[in-house]
Amino acid sequence: MRMHRKLALGAATLALVLSACAPGEGGSSPSASAGATGGEGERSIVIGSAGFYEAQLMAEIYAQALEANGYTVERKLGIGPRDTVQPALESGDFDLEPEYIGSLLTYLGGEAAGDPEETFTNLQAALDEVGLTALDYAPAQDQNAFVVRQETASELGVSTMSELADAEGASDLVWGLPPECETNVLCSGALEQYGFTYGDLNIEQYAACDAPVAQALNDGVVDVAELCSTQPDIERFNFVVLEDDLQTQPSENIAPIVRNEWLDAAPADFAEILNAVSAAMDTETLTSLGVRVAVDQESIEDVAASWLSDNGLN
Amino acid sequence: MSPPAGPIMGAMQDATGAVVSFENVTKRYPGSDSPAVDNLSLTVPAGEICVLVGPSGCGKTTSMKMVNRLIEPTSGRITIDGEDVMSLPAVELRRRIGYVIQQIGLFPHLTIGDNVAVVPKLLRWKDQRIRERVEELLEIVGLDPAAYAKRYPTELSGGERQRVGVARALAADPPVMLMDEPFGAVDPIRRDRLQNEFLRLQEKVRKTIVFVTHDVDEAIKMADRIAILQKGGILAQFDTPAAILANPASEFVERFVGADRGLKRLSLGRVGDLEMIEAITVRAGEDRTAIRARLDRVDELDYALLVDDQDRPLGWIDQQDLRGSGPINPEAASPGAPTVERETTLRDALSGMLGSSVQLGVVVDERERVLGLVSVDAIGERLRAPVRAADGGLHPVGEAAS
Amino acid sequence: MEFFGEVAAWFADPANWNGPDGIPARIGEHLVLSIVPLAAAVAVALPVGAWIGHTGRFSNLVINIANVGRAIPSLAILALAAMLLQRTIVDIGLRDSASEIVTMIALFFLAIPPILTNAYVGINEVDDQIVEAGRGMGMRDLEILRRVEIPVGLPVILVGVRTAAVQVVATATLGAVVATGGLGRYIIDGIAQRRFDEVFAGALIVAALSIATELGFSFIERRATSPGLRGRDTAPRELAQAGRPGGI
Ligand SMILES: Nc1ncnc2c1ncn2[C@@H]1O[C@H](COP(=O)(O)OP(=O)(O)OP(=O)(O)O)[C@@H](O)[C@H]1O
Ligand SMILES: [Mg+2]
């Protein structure tokens, strides 16, 4: 029986690998769509999202929160990767989508910072150019993070990257890092900032945010792995995400992005409803919801509904 | 199991076979109510061919395979020279019994030489001895070792494979041979020649042979003794061919042997038993006048026999073609002279001769060289002579005829 | 066109021929990664398949293993191997080679079905008459197997080994996903770093190695098969090859 569950879990994780994680590209194909209805105080909105499950889950949560307040919502979830979704939003195919602030800023040509506030400010400036607005961002971030096993964290007594760099025995650690780490400032550059010498690290090459590296970390093949902060494996294997205390990674908090055209005519409670949702969503919460969707195979609708009601948001 | 003392000719004088005896042998296959072989008792004297014959499913193969324990009897016992076959390890027993199956079962991945060498190798003979034995055996069965030893079974004709099968079974000079429809897969003409060849061979080696066939004519031709089995593995009659033809023991035997018993009795006689007429053989290019002169010296003969430079028959030259003078025209020879061997039964010889325009059979030796002629009249004469039941057995012609 | 120029340039670059991630080193790793599991699979599946073909017992087992084995994607076999065995491998102190061992175990299981099936089919299909001739001549069970069934079934048996070998060489590429060396590194690392000349070059080398494997084993087959068996029906090779595209 136990074996059985383990297998099922593994298969699910495997499937997940292909689409999960990283505030990056999702899977499914772009879909054409009719123009969204502009709402002159009308409680009717079209919500879109990228293809991967985390974006769909957030979009569904926005949708149900609004529906609970009397809005009529049309869903265009799972449209495709960012370079499909973003132009569609700008052109008015839909009115609202969840996005990661750092990645979106980078996409729009800006430079994402480690500080969320700074990133958000710069993002809003960039969005002004294309007629969009970011509502309040959630504490929840899905960013690349360095992760250790619980036992490593307690043995070395570390909870932040700086502590890890100073810890005795840190040089014995085996790192599971992606092949592109060496040339990526957000990876090797970040590690150098903490005082590691990239060339001296004992590295096994695994793709970041992927099932194999999570498995390898759990099994002890590696001791530190680069994962995504909301990756279900973190909860499944009870890993510890080391705090990026020097803010080397661009902030990737999730925020609703809405068309100004719609926002200008929106009912008064609109931003309030979504801001309340964002306020309640932190990284651990988002990770748990991700486990329910991607590992336990619960439907996105059910997961969204139960979280909203647990938080009194519907 | 003693290997042959020397070349096979050394083994010619006596039977090297052993007495094979079935004593109340019954075989009941699991899950079957009726036995496949029922209380079979018979004794095959050393050096004789015992043919098991009967309709399909009557238990011939089962009986035969109990001798080398490919099948083990349910009750009763089988002895070879008095020794119970069950008292020996099966593997050892089998290495002392030659075995030829219907499809010959040559090993396709081994050369002819290696096929023949299988049992000697199992018996761990020395290489040198195996090599010599293989050559000897291939020669015995009429295959030139130089030409055949290195070839593979697929490169041989059905008849050649058959001979290899026999050579392989003889390799360790076993006293007993088991043969299950060994000539079943070859065409009738080749079959007759293979049978003759085998009879000549048996004349030299004198093995005790248990031979299975469902063909009565083959049984009559090959057997010293025939065991006729009927459905359920019951022995219907066990006797010499002549005795069975003269006195069928039951209605079953009578029906099985067939209505043409009288004609079949012809099968008891051999071409070698007949008086041969001298053949006037001629070769291409010989002078007609000279041939006419030779032909005139023989009363009963109107034809000369054209032969090739190996003395093998090509066709008849009749008086017409011999008119005038000058060399004969080989084109004029009418082909289709029926050839027979000394071991051919009179029945087969007769049917061949009746089918040809010139009612003469050309007797040839194992290399197809002309020995002489036999006439339909001679067979008729022999038919008119009283048949002596006891005299029907196998009389291979052997050296006496030459 | 330009792209092929880049690929050619990649091959021409001496840097790609030297050091621990140079082509010779990667090919060496790839071969080790392939040969070990293939040899192990041959050592296990050949005798088992041959024995089952000889006795006829448990033949359903062979058929089921073959079918199930073919139905599971290579990547899933690798993931399962990692999930079920990696921890144990680390625990018994083989941490430094854990990736390689996991990959080899996956490749081992990948190689089993074709070898097992063809060993079984090859032996089982040997004409009963020939086997009976052997038995009737006094061969023991093992002698029948060794002197008759194996040599006669050899062409079919070797086709299974060849199929497995080509699959293993092509699929060893996947090991790079779990951090092994080998030629898969060019492909996986190339994709991660968007160096597509390297990806393509890596794929070319893997393809060349697979073809070389195919040719090498065909040569062995020809040498090992008795001339008496040439031109025989080796149809079962299709049986072993069907259903799996081979490779990733
Ligand atoms: N292995 C076996 N298991 C069960 N029954 C068998 C087995 N072999 C033969 N029999 C049965 O025993 C009987 C005798 O078979 P056997 O093979 O001895 O016949 P046969 O006289 O050689 O026939 P044929 O001329 O067709 O070769 C048949 O009814 C056959 O079906
Ligand atoms: Mg039979």
Report on the architecture of this protein.
- The complex is a heterotrimer of chains A (314), B (402) and C (248).
- Chain A is an alpha/beta fold and 314 residues long.
- Chain A contains 14 helices and 10 strands.
- In chain A, the strands form 3 sheets. A 5-stranded mixed sheet of chain A has the order 7-6-8-5-9.
- With 402 residues, chain B is an alpha/beta fold.
- Chain B has 2 domains: 254 residues, 3-Layer(aba) Sandwich (Rossmann fold), CATH 3.40.50.300; 115 residues, Roll (CBS-domain).
- Helix content of chain B is 31%, strand content 20%.
- Chain B has 15 helices and 16 strands.
- Chain B has a 6-stranded mixed sheet with strand order 6-7-8-3-9-10, sandwiched between helices. A 4-stranded antiparallel sheet of chain B has the order 2-1-4-5, covered by helices on one side. A 3-stranded mixed sheet of chain B has the order 11-12-13, with no helix packed on it.
- Chain B is globular.
- Chain C has one domain: MetI-like fold, CATH 1.10.3720.
- The radius of gyration of chain C is 20 Å and the shape is elongated.
- Classes of the chains: A alpha/beta (314), B alpha/beta (402), C mainly alpha (248).
- Chains B and C meet through helix 2 and helix 4 of B and helix 6 and helix 7 of C.
- Bound molecules: adenosine-5'-triphosphate and magnesium ion.
- The site of magnesium ion has 2 residues of chain B, from helix 1.
- The site of adenosine-5'-triphosphate has 11 residues of chain B, from helix 1.
Decide which structural class fits the backbone of chain B: alpha/beta
Shape of chain C: elongated
Counted by DSSP, the helix tally of chain B is 15
In helices, the fraction of residues of chain B equals: 25-40%
Number of folding domains of chain B? 2
CATH arch. level architecture of the largest domain in chain B = 3-Layer(aba) Sandwich
Quote the CATH topology of chain C: MetI-like fold
- CATH class of the largest domain in chain B equals Alpha Beta
In short:
Chain B is an alpha/beta fold and 402 residues long. Chain B has helices spanning 60-67, 90-95, 112-116, 118-122, 127-140, 145-148, 158-170, 188-205, 216-222, 241-246, 251-257, 261-264, 288-296, 346-354, 376-384, and strands spanning 20-27, 37-44, 49-53, 75-80, 83-84, 97-100, 176-180, 208-213, 225-230, 234-239, 281-282, 304-307, 313-317, 339-340, 360-364, 370-375.
